[in-house]
Design brief:
The complex is a heterodimer of chains A (341) and B (299). In chain A, helix 4 packs across helix 5, helix 4 packs parallel to helix 7 and helix 5 crosses helix 7. Chain A has an 8-stranded mixed β-sheet, sandwiched between helices. In chain A, strands 2-1-4-5 form a 4-stranded antiparallel β-sheet, with helices on one face. With 341 residues, chain A is α/β, with parallel strands linked by helices. Chain B is mostly helical and 299 residues long. Chain B has one domain: MetI-like (MetI-like fold). The chains are: A alpha/beta (341), B mainly alpha (299). The interface between A and B is medium-sized, with 31 and 21 residues. Chain A: Its main location: membrane. Chain A: It is a peripheral membrane protein.
Chain lengths: 341, 299
């Protein structure tokens, strides 16, 4: 198996809350230095998946089954104290809300150097020097003068840069970015994602990018995993995915977006929508996308279709679209992206 | 003066590296601009100075009988505030009494704060069964009338300054515990606590380094009121003769003057005014701090 090469491998992970299961047997892996985008709508289990890698689930949630291993270490088997050595040093997390993710009463320099001193035995002074370097690294101008600033002195984009500096301070192998740019305006968004991409190359880390923005995925990710109602329904490399999305849900997602590069405009053709809502998946057997699916068949409502590997790192959980040879595929009412080549 | 000093810095902004006014100075100015706080702080500072310099101002033993008994204030220039029924200098005793009152007030508040903050922090941060157990304990203390509890504790032990402070502290911690618990309950859900956990910080470190500084402002405000309450309680105890007979306290002076209430009412009125002054100053400081430390008015 490829687990030897993988940095993080999540195997059949299920996470349960009292009364419902948020994640069903999700499996994916991330190679060193790679960016995997985890995509899906709100409430589909993206963040829960990410937080279970950090073992920071809410107190009422628990991992029901599955394995999470980081560089061969079984994270679910570690004690809480051992897990604290992993967090911040080998896996870091960037949250979506930079305005509230920094401690308002401590200076940013102190917050960054505390992270370094938490995981490495360095003097206060050396840690402070490192903090200046890190602020420099995340492109905060005039880092040496800003280091004693408090979070309320900084803008949202700057704060997210400080969060990134804290997250990469101990050179983690994996950075989990949970919608890192949702709270930022569009220009800042691009800068922050560029910064993340740059740091990934310079520090050789892998990034698990959680987002619902396919534009972000197309530009910054290497591979994509699409989640729907707690299940991964499609995994693919970025180019094959955007060229020919296979799962009906993926097609729906791509059909619902405007491709500005291809000179599209919302007036030039009708954007498709996915009928129904994610709530329609509740309490039914079979494929959770079946109630909204344009190509649904009777068998889809009986059993959950497994995620079937199709080679070249691609896997799709839809027997209907994968069984038909490429040329004979039915044209979908919502295959806006598929029709474009 | 400070306004004039800044003006050129603002105009020639390029000359000043970074921000013109350091954060500490801005904080200080916020304090000085608040009239309530300034008034309270001035009275309090005066009282503290009196307590510290009592030995220099009145080198003679204030327990000595030095003059004719029951001299009225102004009657004899040597005793500006008169003498009591034993011929002791009232002014000197008032000044020495500041020591006992402030000492008991601060010590009792410190003990109450220490217990209350530890209990509140753990209850609020850990939640669940720990929280339930600790809160039942708090309720047990809160349903007992504070003053009765203090009297019970003091009457079991010797009434000395340390035991009185301990008793008042033990009776007053539940308020702080509830306050701190509420703060911790809301702060533990914040993003920066999640960020701290994701960086590998231990729960104890998150409590002390991340949450506690954010929970402090209302606690500091409560502390000034706690000192005031402790001073009142101490005065009440002394009035009831639950006091160290060798220590001069305002409450004790009121108790001593009770017998002459109709003939020499100043013997009770003067220490009463002193208590009112001390409590007022602490309440003013508390109100001022409340306005200054309110995050919505953060300078």
């Amino acid at each position: 198996m490829t687990a030897g090469a993988a940095l993080l491998s999540v195997d059949k992970l299920s996470v349960a809350f009292p009364g419902h299961t948020a994640v069903h047997e999700a499996s994916f892996s991330i190679s060193p230095g790679e960016t995997l985008a985890l995509v899906g709508e709100s409430g589909c289990g993206k963040s829960v998946t990410a937080f279970s890698v950090m073992r920071l689930l809410p107190p009422n949630a628990r991992v029901a089954s599955g394995r999470i291993s980081l560089e061969g270490t079984d994270l679910l088997a570690l004690s809480e104290a051992e897990m604290r050595e992993v967090r911040g040093a080998r896996v870091s997390l960037i949250q979506q809300e930079p305005m509230t993710s920094l401690n308002p009463v401590l200076s940013i320099g102190l917050q960054i150097s505390e992270v370094i001193r938490r995981h490495e035995k360095v003097s206060r002074k050396a840690a402070r020097e490192r903090a200046v370097e890190l602020l420099d690294l995340v492109s905060i101008p005039n880092a040496r003068n800003r280091i004693d600033d408090y979070p309320h002195n900084l803008s949202g984009g700057m704060r997210q840069r400080v969060m990134i500096a804290m997250a990469v301070a101990c050179q983690p192998k994996l950075l989990i970015a949970d919608e890192p740019t949702t709270a930022l305006d569009v220009t800042t968004q691009a800068q922050v994602l560029d910064l993340l991409d740059d740091l990934r190359h310079r520090l050789g880390m892998a990034v698990l990018l959680i987002t619902h923005d396919l534009g972000v995925v197309a530009q910054w990710a290497d591979r994509i995993a699409v989640m729907y109602a707690g299940r991964i329904v499609e995994q693919a490399g970025i180019e094959p995915f955007f060229a020919s999305p296979m799962h009906p849900y993926s097609r729906g997602l791509l059909g619902a977006r405007v491709d500005v590069d291809a000179d599209e405009h919302y007036g030039s053709h009708r954007l498709t929508e996915i009928p129904g809502s994610i709530a329609s998946a509740a309490g039914q057997t079979g494929c959770s996308f079946a109630p909204r699916c344009p190509v649904v068949q009777a068998a889809c409502r009986q059993a959950v279709p497994p995620l079937t590997p199709l080679g070249e790192g691609r896997a799709v959980a839809c027997p209907v679209t994968t069984s038909v040879p490429l040329a004979n595929r039915p044209s979908f009412p919502l295959s806006g992206a598929g029709a474009r080549q | 003066m400070s306004v004039q000093a800044e003006q050129p810095i603002v105009v020639t902004g390029a000359a000043a590296p970074g921000r013109a006014i350091p954060r500490r100075r801005r904080r200080l100015r916020a304090f000085l601009r608040n009239p309530t706080f300034v008034a309270g702080a001035l009275i309090l500072t005066a009282l503290v100075l009196l307590a510290l310099t009592a030995g220099l101002l009145f080198p003679a033993d204030p327990q000595d009988m030095v003059g004719t008994p029951l001299l009225w204030p102004g009657q004899d220039a040597e005793f500006p505030l008169g003498t009591d029924s034993l011929g002791r200098d009232v002014l000197a005793r008032l000044v020495y009494g500041t020591r006992a009152s402030l000492l008991v007030g601060v010590a009792a508040a410190a003990i109450g704060l220490a217990i209350g903050m530890v209990v509140g922090a753990f209850a609020g941060f850990l939640g669940g069964r720990v929280d339930a157990a600790l809160m039942r304990l708090v309720e047990l203390f809160q349903t007992t009338p504070t003053f009765i509890l203090v009297i019970v504790i003091v009457s079991i032990t010797e009434p000395t300054i340390p035991t009185i402070a301990m008793a008042i502290g033990l009776a007053s911690w539940p308020t702080v515990a509830r306050l701190v618990r509420a703060q911790f309950r809301s702060l533990r859900e914040t993003d920066f606590v999640m960020a701290a956990r994701s960086l590998g910080y231990s729960p104890l470190r998150i409590i002390v380094q991340e949450i506690l500084p954010n929970a402090l402002p209302p606690v500091i405000v409560a502390a000034s009121v706690m000192i005031a309450n402790a001073i009142l309680t101490e005065a009440g105890l002394s009035f009831l003769n639950m006091r160290d007979p060798n220590v001069i306290s305002w409450g004790g002076m009121i108790g001593d003057g009770r017998d002459q209430l109709r003939t020499a009412w100043f013997l009770t009125a003067l220490p009463g005014a002193a208590i009112a002054m001390a409590v007022l100053s602490l309440n003013l400081v508390g109100d001022g701090l409340n306005e200054i430390l309110n995050p919505r008015t953060e300078p």
